[in-house]
């Protein structure tokens, strides 16, 4: 008994639709597939971009809030201690990393002020610039009840100087613009960072802190 031949479906399709139609259908399916891959592939990227953008907006808002919270205090202290508010704000920003450092968040020390009394200080790690490079040390830092107390102590330090030189920051107090004041701080050895003055100036310019000196 002879075997029945199986029908070849492919040949039937070719006969039914023709080669050009099948090629066109294949191209259309491939195109649709690419569109789907692109659409679904772009969604995660858009989500990541949106998240990064939102995070950046939050950071900028937090920084503006930090400035607005401290600016009135800095302006009030200027009348008593003659320290430009822009300098006070810029130093607080640099020294405390916008109020986010451990020293600032836990102990309200916005300026990296050191102390000697074990009762009113806390020992923490810090970095200082020595002999041409940065080194990590442990030092005793002053603890404050709130940020306002830290700002006032900072203003008093600049106004009254150090125990070994009461006039150490006199040129900072005499300065009428933030650039002169920043360079005076550098020359008075306020910080070990050799680029400290320029960093202050850059922050003041970037966030227009000079507007609070009026």
Automatic annotation (TrEMBL):
Keywords: Hydrolase. GO terms for molecular function: amidase activity; N-acetylmuramoyl-L-alanine amidase activity. Residues 56-213 form the Mannosyl-glycoprotein endo-beta-N-acetylglucosamidase-like domain. The keyword Transferase does not apply. Its EC number is 3.5.1.28. Pfam families: Glucosaminidase (PF01832). Belongs to the glycosyl hydrolase 73 family. This is N-acetylmuramoyl-L-alanine amidase. It comes from Loigolactobacillus rennini.
């Amino acid at each position: 008994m002879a075997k029945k031949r199986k029908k070849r479906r492919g040949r039937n399709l070719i006969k039914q639709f023709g080669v050009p139609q099948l090629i066109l259908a294949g191209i259309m399916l491939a195109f649709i597939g690419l569109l789907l891959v692109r659409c679904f592939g772009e969604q995660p990227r858009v989500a990541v971009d949106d998240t990064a953008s939102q995070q950046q907006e939050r950071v900028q808002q937090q920084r503006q809030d930090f400035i607005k919270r401290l600016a009135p205090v800095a302006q009030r202290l200027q009348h008593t201690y003659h320290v430009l508010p822009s300098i006070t704000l810029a130093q607080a920003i640099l020294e405390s990393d916008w109020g986010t450092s451990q020293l600032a968040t836990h102990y309200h020390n916005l300026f990296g002020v050191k102390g000697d009394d074990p009762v009113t200080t806390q020992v923490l790690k810090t970095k200082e610039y020595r002999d041409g490079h940065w080194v990590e040390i442990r030092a005793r830092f002053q603890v404050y009840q709130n940020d306002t107390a830290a700002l006032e102590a900072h203003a008093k330090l600049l106004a009254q100087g150090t125990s070994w030189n009461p006039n150490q920051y006199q040129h900072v107090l005499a300065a009428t613009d933030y650039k002169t004041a920043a360079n005076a701080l550098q020359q008075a050895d306020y910080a070990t960072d050799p680029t400290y003055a320029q960093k202050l100036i850059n922050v003041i310019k970037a966030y227009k802190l000079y507007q609070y000196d009026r």
